Amino acid sequence: MDGNGRWATRRGLPRVAGHHEGVKAARSVVRAASGLGLRYLTLYAFSTENWSRPVDEVSMLMSLLERSVNAELPELMARNARLRVLGRPHGLPAGVRRGIDHVVHETRHNTGLTVLMAFNYGARDELIDAFRSLARQVAAGELRPEDISEKKISESLYTADLPDPDLLIRTSGEMRISNFLLWQIAYTELWVTPTLWPDFGAVDLYRAVAEFQGRTRRFGKV
Ligand code: FPP
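That is the input. Now the predicted structure with farnesyl diphosphate docked in place:
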């Protein structure tokens, strides 16, 4: 969800104004994804690198994300949508963690769209956590090194029980992955739009999905 800061700066507004608009965009995209019948929507809300932003922006983002997620609980319930979080929970302020855990808990039995919020997420950290867990099993004699397979590694990630993403949308024209789901996106289709995140809405999602539907996926085969 890139481009909140630039959206605000271009209008002579403080960066926080861009984040507030970004929340509105996230709400419309969740609605549109649920309406389309998508099974999963992952939103990259806060990366492990985002901690190095100015302290004020970080604390504002933390409370904004927590408040926004809590405010969406009634709509998530009404849409039979479930919230899950990807990332390292420790390191987040306890209050923020509790607030988000509450929404995850309340929506856990919903069977419609699963909204995955990548929060305090970094793909390299995720891989480190997975490899540590596998190494522990090897050290304990529960796993042989030759039994470490793609499946084993996938099952050790935060996304253990989830399918790999079909489509990755990056806003604001940046042509990079920025430490997002590095293992899982091996065969994901990429779609980059110059639109800044606060201007991204349902129509943009439809456009991306429609273009995705026209692509031929070979998964390395012919
Ligand atoms: C990117 O803009 C956005 C973020 C760092 C994260 C915050 C995202 C939101 C507030 C959207 C709402 C999300 C949810 C799940 C409620 P940027 O600051 O990197 O913009 P810039 O690249 O233009 O500086």
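Helices lie at 4-10, 15-36, 55-71, 73-78, 94-106, 123-139, 150-155, 202-213.
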